[in-house]
Amino acid sequence: MPGTDQPTTDQGTESMTEELSRTSALADRHRALGSGLEDWNGMGTAWGYDTDPNAEHDAIREAAGMFDMSPLKKVRVTGVDAAAVVDHTHSRDLARLKVGQSAYGAVLTERGTVADDAIAFSNGTEEWLFVHGSGTSMELLEASAEGKDVSIELDDDLHIISLQGPAALGLLESATDADLAPVPYFHHIHALLFGRKAMISRTGYSGERGYEIFAGADDVGDIWDAIVAEGVETGVMPCSFAALDKVRVEAALLFYGYDMTDEHHPSEVGLGWALSRSGADYRGKAAALAAIGSERFVGAGIAIDHHDMIAGGETLQLDGTGVGTVNSPAFSHRLDKSLALVHVAPAAAVPGTALTVVSESTEYSARVEAIPFFDPDKTRTHA
Questions:
Q1: Are 318 and 353 in contact (CB under 8 A)?
Q2: Which of 37, 175, 252, 285 falls between 20 and 30 A from 165, CA-CA?
Q3: Do 247 and 270 belong together in one domain?
Q4: What is the pTM of this model?
Q5: CATH number assigned to the domain comprising residue 365
Q6: For residue 290, is it within any domain?
């Protein structure tokens, strides 16, 4: 999953609701589970439920967790020049994708820095779905479309349910008219799910084998309710973004606005692999490739000697000298560790390096660990 800033929780729900420009068809279900529907990307989002985020975390790892990812922006790019537009906007060589395939990558500025991250889904040469978070993908798609025969439209009727965990395949396969098991990672199919039209994509933001279900507003509620009913006996449960943040940090998955911004080159945040060397001349390509080898810092992970999650934003020191910054902290009760994704000087990024986490009021000892923290060989997502 592409990310965005966490909500400001000191506002009242009513005042935040007035500011929201987008609404999920699942909003009443989130309220019933205890969510105040905090803002994410202009849409009320379940950052917390009445259930314990640790129990939700366990469900994702042991059964399956279900999230409403509808606040992601779903952009339909259609027309004769659709392929050229997405190829100019996205850092992967999308011309290589067949219908039913997708690719995760960066959206770059002209300077070769990260303006956003996105998944591009191919539904045909003239039909693409471009899914992104809080960065400027929409504006950059529109810039790439100037003078082209193409239509670019935000589709807020399209909703996303993400079902992540080892029980996801069995639950969905029993409810669809398609053969879901052979669908490879980053592929998708169009099928009936619980009798409703859906696009089912083998993607996610959890470090687990999971699926993202794209369905219209008239269908998504019935699909959500059916998953809840079918999954209750096996431990499948709705999960909040508080739990999602735990599993994505364990899996070292990046969150736009925290782990990467438009001040960072892809190779500095661990996205050098997502820069296609051949193929289309996408925006920022030359600058991003030229930055490889001269990184000011690199993305890494640390474990902190602390019994809880730290705040984030702290400075990292090596022998009293500042060498980095904490971006995304989380406490994993399953690993029994306080973890964080960080930016750190390349020389200090070696696993085992001892660091000090420094804020205005506290200091903690920490050490660099190899990432992902969880399932480093990615056997679960790629099963």
A1: yes
A2: 37
A3: no
A4: 0.94
A5: 2.40.30.110
A6: yes
